[in-house]
Automatic annotation (TrEMBL):
Matches recorded under PANTHER family: BLL5683 PROTEIN, METALLOPHOSPHOESTERASE
Family of this protein: Belongs to the metallophosphoesterase superfamily. YfcE family.
Organism: Neobacillus pocheonensis
Organism domain of life: Bacteria
One protein family per Pfam: Metallophos_2
InterPro entries reported in the protein's UniProt record: Ap4A_hydrolase, Calcineurin-like_PHP_lpxH, Metallo-depent_PP-like, Pesterase_MJ0912
Protein name per Swiss-Prot or TrEMBL: Metallophosphatase family protein
Domain Calcineurin-like phosphoesterase: 3-192
Length: 246
């Protein structure tokens, strides 16, 4: 059987990404898929893109990757934009919406946020109907099996790792590498099964948490004089989203 590592939401946090890649390598996993949001929040978006390009077989577009190359009014976003080259901006523009494949007889689909948009946010506590809609085919998804809907959906976006079985289907959020908002450890998922096999076989999903040097991530942001530093520190050290009301 083959193992596939699925990472997401790097957000320019290189110490977290390096720790996750070391863990993936220690498991001898060769195939890595990234579910987007390479940039922003952390200070090293440019290096994050370089490392993802080097290590990942497939990379799809997140909401930050989508709006990042477009003109922005926010001083903070402009600061992050200025860290990228023109070629890196073009790379973000060209990222695909989703990726699909068969594994142990299951149709697996991966996107950043939902099958409809990189901006539609679905949480594990949302209604059953909203979560079931994560398995819909849309004009944006690849639909490699025609009208057949996926058996397994993996996504990122909410920075909140979970795994649910819903009416015979599997919904998995792989969490965030660089900006986790559930516990203060980097998160990713491992899928194990027979890649590209149409017949039913053994299949599993494992959620992995990886400690990393949070103080180094904060030091790098401070040395770069990154805007919204205190908000960033809060998220890394408490796993609490800066937008939550006290």
């Amino acid at each position: 059987m083959e193992k596939i590592a699925v990472i997401s939401d790097i957000h320019g946090n290189i110490p977290a990404l390096e720790s996750v890649l070391v863990d993936i390598d220690s498991r001898n996993i060769k195939r890595i898929i990234c579910l987007g949001d390479l940039v922003g929040k952390g200070p090293q978006s440019s290096m994050a893109i370089e490392m993802i390009q080097k290590h990942c077989e497939s990379v799809i577009r997140g909401n930050w990757d989508d709006f990042f190359p477009k003109p922005q009014e926010s001083h903070t976003i402009k600061w992050h934009q200025n860290q990228l080259t023109k070629n890196q901006m073009n790379y973000l523009k060209e990222l695909p919406f989703s990726v699909e494949f068969m594994m142990s007889g299951k149709l697996v689909r991966m996107f950043h946020a939902s099958p409809r948009s990189v901006y539609e946010r679905i949480q594990p506590w949302d209604s059953l109907d909203r979560r079931l809609r994560m398995f819909e085919n849309t004009e944006s998804t690849e639909n490699i099996a025609g009208k057949r809907e996926p058996d397994v959906v993996c996504y990122g976006d909410v920075h909140n790792a979970f795994h649910q079985n819903i009416k015979g289907k599997t919904l998995c959020n792989v969490g965030s590498v660089g900006n986790p908002l559930d516990i203060t450890q980097a998160s990713y998922a491992i899928l194990e099964g027979e890649y590209n096999q149409l017949e039913k076989g053994v299949f599993s999903i494992q959620l992995v948490r990886v400690p990393y040097n949070i103080e180094l991530s904060i030091q790098l942001a401070r040395e770069a004089k990154m805007p919204e530093l205190e908000e960033y520190i809060q998220e890394l050290t408490t796993a609490k989203y800066r937008g939550l009301k006290k």
